[in-house]
Amino acid sequence: MNNPSDNNRHASVDSHALGRRWTKQEDSLFNRVFDSTATENEKVRVRFKKRRWTKQEDELLCLCYALHRNEWSVIAEYMQGRSPRSCRERWAIITVNWSQEEIEKLEKNVEKYGENWKQVAKDLPGKTYRQVKAAKQKIE
């Protein structure tokens, strides 16, 4: 199955380069040159540009997970611009359950350590710093 992000893998590049959307001819030329000269790492960096997850992406991720469970490479095909690893990590963040005691400890640690998420997470066994950061953002 083709990755939906392949057709749009450099959509964020075009507006920065020209200040406008590329024409189909410019896009085709870019794809030919890029595909023939770029290393695999360069191709991956363009295809998976970092950006915040949206609520719609979270909802789509939940739907895809319900259909495909732990098949992260299949799930990522539906998530434009997201890698299998990114999908797996996001899933771990949005599905973690917090007890009231953990939430209180989280808030206490944030008061003590600020937004040093790795330090905050040290006192919360089983929680990663990304889960801690996401939980704090949900609480606010």
UniProtKB/TrEMBL annotation:
Domain SANT: 93-134
InterPro entries linked to this entry: Homeodomain-like_sf (IPR009057), Myb-like_DNA-bd (IPR051575), Myb_dom (IPR017930), SANT/Myb (IPR001005), SANT_dom (IPR017884)
Pfam families: Myb_DNA-binding (PF00249)
Domain of life of the organism encoding this protein: Eukaryota
Span of domain Myb-like: 45-95, 97-133
Coiled-coil region: 96-123
GO MF annotation list: RNA polymerase II cis-regulatory region sequence-specific DNA binding; RNA polymerase III type 3 promoter sequence-specific DNA binding
Any GO CC annotation of this UniProt entry: snRNA-activating protein complex
Keywords for the protein's UniProt record, in alphabetical order: Coiled coil, DNA-binding, Nucleus, Transcription, Transcription regulation
Residue intervals of the HTH myb-type domain: 45-100, 101-133
Alphabetical GO biological process terms: snRNA transcription by RNA polymerase II; snRNA transcription by RNA polymerase III
Name this polypeptide is given: 7635_t:CDS:1
Species for this entry: Paraglomus occultum
